[in-house]
Amino acid sequence: MQSIRKRSFSGPDGPRYAKLFFAREDMVMLVSEDELSGMVRKPIQKTAAERVLDHIKNWSGSVSEQWKVRANAQQKKLDDGDPFALAEVYKTLAVRQVQDSLSSADRRQLSQSEECLAEELAVALKQPKRKVCRLMEQAARN
User: Fold this and answer.
1) Which residue has better confidence, 130 or 31?
2) Does the model's pTM come out above 0.85?
3) 31 within 8 A of 18, measured Cβ to Cβ
4) What is the largest CA-CA distance in the chain?
5) Which residues, in sequence order, are bridge partners of residue 32?
6) Is-contact 94 134, C-beta < 8 A?
7) Residue 11 belongs to what H/E stretch?
8) pLDDT tens digits for 62-74?
9) Which residue would you say has higher pLDDT here, 41 or 49?
10) How far, in Å, CA of 93 to CA of 119, rounded?
11) Are 67 and 106 in contact (CB under 8 A)?
């Protein structure tokens, strides 16, 4: 997400909307100001981004060996969008990629988790996305 602008279509006393622009999808979305806090979370700050990188490095949770169970659990985390959950999906699949080949669902989820996480961490850390991807890769190897 790149920017938020507030709009009102019915004058100053009418309902207010936030205009959200998502650069990756080149998409604009209008959300009622009343619903905004339940639909959109604030981007993470630098300290949280550093904790996410530590989470990638230190997380050693287990996942199912059954691809369908694993894919469903990971998709739930991807849909949630929580950076720590994305970090778990990324770490799981990055490690699995080194140890074994990935299914097409695993490859798609690895790509999605890497893209979303790198994008948010790059903004929080004020670093290019390429550099953040290298930091994520280093953290996953440890």
Assistant:
1) 130
2) no
3) yes
4) 59
5) 17
6) no
7) none
8) 888 888 898 999 9
9) 49
10) 18
11) yes
